[in-house]
Design goal:
α6 links the parallel β5 and β6. This protein has 319 residues and is an alpha/beta fold. α2 (114-121) runs parallel beside α3 (138-147) and α4 (179-192) runs parallel beside α5. The protein folds into two domains: 1-35; 72-316, Glycoside hydrolase/deacetylase (TIM Barrel, Alpha-Beta Barrel), CATH 3.20.20.370. It has eight helices and nine strands. Strands 1, 2, 3, 4, 5, 6, 7, 8 and 9 form a nine-stranded parallel β-sheet that branches.
Length: 319
């Protein structure tokens, strides 16, 4: 009996193993079909479009925009955090350096305030004060400049276009004045600022265009040995040409620094004056004792020497 039951058990197990083997073969067949047959389409990439339908590749990838080197400025003097120093190389890109140069800076409209005079003198570089006779503190400013070794000029008020709607000092030179009155007024200016070495025009866009009246002015300066700087308030000025014809030491203004009273503008104009001085050997800039101007000059001027710029009194540049 026992032997019969064992045989039946073995036969049952053998049939079960055979059935499992058949199922396994069937599953393998199905898997192979899915992997290598129609099912393989699930893993294939779509065919590439014809060349004629492909979008052209760019010649090169666009680069991120960068600021030009001359626009990147070093941090400024800590005393003036809103002012940056001029870049070491202030030339326009591609311009060849001409080496060192001399730069004269004339401060016009001096004579109203001793505080302005002291602040400018405190920068510690050569400047030229151009003083308007008759302003509230003009005598004190002239005396202070002389004792401080600062060159002084007479800032001659002259008739502008649009006068009298455009304001002019009461002692200004007018086209309606006769030659004797003009000469007499100039003599008074020279007595008021006795240590002045030269003169330039304050306003005068209309006066400097008049050759006859300018001859009177220049003749008075020549008689005292004063040089003349043409501020060039009019493109039709006769001042420099006449001064040269009359044998008077003279020169013209190249750059106005502070037509706009903010540090960024003033720095840009000073940058222009530096480029000119390096290119031609010299330059003359004019500015005024505005607070923004004084702050900017105090931050920038002491560093110009490292750029090959020598600051000089304007008398060094006249010829």
């Amino acid at each position: 009996m026992k032997k019969s039951r064992n045989n039946r058990y073995k036969n049952s197990n053998g049939g079960r193993y055979a059935a499992l083997a058949i199922v396994g073969v069937i599953l393998l067949a199905i898997g192979g079909y899915l992997l290598f047959g129609a099912g393989s389409q699930l893993f294939r990439q779509p065919p590439a479009p014809p060349a004629s339908q492909r979008a052209p590749l760019p010649a090169r990838l666009p680069e991120a925009p960068q600021a030009p080197a001359e626009a990147i400025l070093r941090p400024g003097d800590l005393a003036y955090p809103n002012v940056t120093t001029l870049p070491t190389d202030s030339r326009p890109k591609g311009e060849k350096s001409a080496g060192k140069g001399q730069l004269a800076i004339i401060i016009d409209d001096m004579g109203s305030s001793m505080q302005e005079a002291r602040s400018l003198a405190g920068i510690g570089v050569p400047l030229t004060f151009s003083i308007i006779p008759g302003l509230a503190s003009y005598r004190e400013v002239a005396s202070f400049a002389a004792s401080s070794g600062i060159e002084t000029m007479i800032h001659m008020p002259m008739q502008p276009k649009g006068w009298p709607q455009h304001r002019l000092e009461a002692n200004g030179l007018l086209l309606s004045m006769d030659d004797a009155a003009i000469a007499d007024r100039l003599e008074g200016f020279m007595r008021d600022i006795p240590r002045a070495t030269g003169a330039n025009n304050h306003m005068g866009s209309e006066f400097t265009e008049n050759e006859d009246k300018m001859r009177v002015v220049l003749g008075a300066l020549k008689s005292r040995g004063l040089f003349f700087i043409d501020s060039v308030t009019s493109p039709q000025t006769k001042g420099l040409r006449l001064a040269r014809e009359m044998g008077i030491k003279s020169e013209r203004r190249n750059v106005f620094l502070d037509n706009e009273q903010n540090s960024a503008y003033i720095q840009g104009q000073l940058n222009q004056a530096v480029r000119l001085a390096r290119k031609t050997g010299s330059g003359i800039a004019i500015c005024h004792p505005h607070p923004a101007t004084i702050r900017t000059l105090a931050a920038l001027l002491p560093g110009l020497e490292k750029q090959g710029i020598t600051l000089v009194p304007v008398s060094r540049l006249v010829r």
